[in-house]
Design brief:
Aspartate Aminotransferase, domain 1; 13 helices; Aspartate Aminotransferase, domain 2; 2 domains; three-stranded antiparallel sheet; seven-stranded mixed sheet; about 40% helix; homodimer; about 375 residues
Chain lengths: ~375, ~375
């Protein structure tokens, strides 16, 4: 029988999963067309709408991880030849660029240093110059720990008949993600970050403007599995069988969303901010410096410079895991070997976890 | 808190999930790059190789349901313009055709009546005529309950430098699926049929011949999420991060595979056949007739004609679910309203389940 150790998950995700979510995960499996499961899907959809702060009917849990959700949006929204504007200030903007190209898009990039954000004025100017059909930026860059402001972009994008798409994998349920107030046309997240649910599903939402484009495409969507004209009918509309949804993962998502709404969005955001400030103060006391823009640092993902004198950073992380069951993340891409990523996501963003993180760091760095 | 009823799952899948698999599912979540998870992935891979009866290194659990596994193979193996031969004798051949077209393939179909199989001689003749790059047939058609013979096809396909691809979603772990002995180049399954694991992953295997084609493609694979040049490195090779695998679903698959191998492949196949024969005898005693080719009927999926006199078949199935917690399947496509599909898959293929199925049918049809 499988024996899995309990880890303290303070890397870039997955985050610690509360017992009631694991309990929901292990409820009896039922059929994907069972009326009870249809009801569960409805409730999952309604709860996701609340966390996304949207009334979008097309809100669903894509049957794959966050990367599948990203691909669902790009594949459905980009038609061959569409001009796309994609921001790259970390790993995930690069991946979105790759996906948009595979969908046939003509991709223009804006680039910023890793750990920095884009000024909204600069994005708006580029939108006015390029008049892109699709504009994609990452709200919370998991590879760099910064939060991209998104509240002023929609008007310019819509003025040129474009769609505004947001990656909120790491911000969803940990920071305000205001789909309707900000005029976002499509967004995707993952379950294993601030939702504190195991990985395997991707919360996705699309506005009516976005769905109008999907329904009136001239070309077929690259993917059958992710084609919203098909999947959408299973989640909404006539409930036609498309694929067998990951039943038990949807149970877990249901419970994770229930916990988020029971706590309340605003108290949850405040908790993430508060625990982050406490960690930051303690880390700075120990001489750590942050590598992300201080004006736009994420609370749930702390990008810190590896202290001078640490020669084998992977060895340090291995000791944290082996001796303390503590997972923190290494740097990705250009930050590999330079930074660590300390996650305080969802169920992991609690005062009582800070002591463990700090004690372990103190011991391995002593 | 979510309350899910216990259903007796005797439709076309999902199948009943044993307690130890649900228990594995709810083990603590750990990181997708954790050495413990890498070890679990290795063991999952080794156990899948045994059930697939293959030594293929590229054997992995695709992070989506069976439909994603199908798409992974088609997207990676079909290049634009490739001549594909796809058999349609049920719903899933039609879907594979759709997927192969989206991948850019020039698709030729062979068609057989739903409930019938193709003669291997006829397939071989068509292969010799068309010289297709890709040949795809469905081993166990979940929509019709027949088993397509596959043991004599490879030589002709390989003689014209083609690849032989098999859908074994419903046969895997319930009937012999002999990847290497039959010369199959690529195959995919799902977790929620004879493996008796919740849906959410797709066991996939590719031969070295198939991977040679993937590695030497001239065009980019449509999908980033399913691109085997990327995913393959996470499951084998250098273990480079690609996406966050559905961690807990892999625990469940690990335990489901362990149970299969603990029972033994041959005893498991014999059990499926024995329980099917018992059900068949009892159903025929009650006047039911089978709608699938009797020489090639699947043991795990019984396609029966709805008895004369039943006017509201959906109402009967609703009563079975509401009054007996028993799920059986309706007909799909051209068989809708004409047939029922009674599944005896994995943990559901047990003598003690037959009494429940037959008693419930007797009562609702009385």
């Amino acid at each position: 029988m499988l024996q899995v150790p309990t880890r303290y998950l303070h890397g870039p995700g997955p985050s610690p999963v509360p017992p009631s979510v694991l309990n929901a995960l292990s409820q009896p499996c039922i059929g994907h067309m069972d009326p009870v499961f249809m009801q569960i899907m409805n409730e999952v959809r309604q709860m996701m709408q609340k966390v996304f702060q949207t009334e979008n009917e097309m809100t669903l849990a894509c049957s794959g991880t966050g990367s599948a959700g990203a691909e669902m949006l790009v594949d459905n929204l980009v038609e061959p030849g569409d001009v796309c504007l994609v921001g790259i200030n970390g790993v995930f903007g690069g991946r979105l660029t790759d996906k948009a190209k595979r969908a046939g898009g003509t991709v223009h990039n804006m680039n910023a240093d890793w750990g920095q954000v884009f000024s909204q004025d600069a994005i708006i100017a580029e939108v006015e110059r390029l008049r892109p059909k699709i504009v994609i930026f990452v709200h919370a860059e998991t590879s760099t720990g910064v939060c991209q402001p998104f509240d002023r972009l929609a008007e310019a994008v819509h003025a040129h008949d474009g769609l505004l798409v947001m990656d909120c994998v790491t911000s969803f349920a940990g920071l305000p993600v205001k789909i309707d107030p900000w005029g976002i046309d499509a967004a995707y997240s993952g379950t294993q970050k601030c939702l504190s649910c195991p990985p395997g599903l991707s919360p996705v939402t699309l506005s009516e403007r976005a769905m109008h484009k999907v329904r009136n495409r001239k070309s077929t969507v690259n993917s059958w599995y992710l084609d919203l004209n098909l999947v959408g009918n299973y989640w909404t509309g006539n409930r036609a069988y498309h694929h067998t949804a990951p039943i038990n993962m949807n149970y877990a998502l249901h419970e994770a969303l229930r916990l988020v709404l029971e706590e309340g969005l605003e108290p949850r955001f405040v908790r993430h901010r508060r625990v982050h400030e406490m960690l930051k103060a303690e880390l700075e006391k120990r001489g750590f410096s942050y590598a992300s823009d201080p004006q736009n640092s994420l609370p749930m993902l702390n990008l810190v410079n590896i202290p001078a004198g640490v020669e084998n950073e992977a060895g340090i992380r291995k000791r944290l895991l082996d001796e303390f069951n503590l997972e923190i993340g290494g740097g990705l891409g250009t930050l590999a070997g330079k930074c660590w990523r300390i996650g305080l996501m969802g169920h992991g963003a609690r005062e009582e976890n800070l002591r463990l993180i700090l004690d372990a760091l103190d011991q391995v760095l002593a």
